[in-house]
Amino acid sequence: MKRRIVIIAVFLICFMTNVMAQNSIDKLVDEYSAAGTSSYTSVVDRDPNTLKVRNVINVLSLENADAGKFISAFKRESRTGNFTEKYSPDSYKMVLTVGKQNQSRIYVLACSDPYRPGRSNTKFEEVKVTIVINYR
Q1: Which of 2, 3, 44, 116 is 20 to 30 A from 86, comparing alpha carbons?
Q2: How far is residue 92's CA from residue 89's CA, in Å, rounded to a whole number?
Q3: What are phi and psi of 117, to 5 degrees?
Q4: Which domain, by its residues, includes 38?
Q5: 126: CB partners within 8 A, 6+ apart
Q6: Per-residue pLDDT tens over the stretch 4-60
Q7: Strand pairing partners for 59?
Q8: How far is Cα 121 from Cα 116, in angstroms, rounded to an integer?
C-alpha cells in the first residue's frame, strides 16, 4: 500500500513539473503581451474538414527589453524537454521542445545581440518569443 502511494506521488510530481514548466513560459508571454511596448500575434491553423485545431503559433516581440526573466525561465525548464542554446556573433537563441501524448510544444527565444554566459546586462535591442503548439 505504501509502495503504491509513493509511486503515485512520484508520478504526480513528475507530471506537475512538466506542466509548471510550460505554464511558466506561457505566463511570462501573457504578462508581457499585455504591456504597451510589445507586439503579440497568434495564428490558429484548423483542419478545413473537421475544424479541429492543428497548430497554434504565438509570437511575442519586444524592443529594447530585458530578456533576463525569459532566459531564466528557459534555463530553469531546460530539464523538461529537449533544450538547445546557440550563440552567434549577431544573435542568441534558445529552443525548448516538449512532447506530450496529444500535443508537442516548441518554445523559441531569439535575441538580437550576442549573449554571453555571465553577462550582467540582459537588455537586448530585439527579443522574440515564439510558441508553436502542434496537436496530434
Answers
A1: 44
A2: 8
A3: -55, 135
A4: 2-135
A5: 61, 62, 63, 111, 112
A6: 554 555 555 555 444 444 578 999 999 888 877 789 999 999 999 999 999 999 999
A7: 41, 130
A8: 10
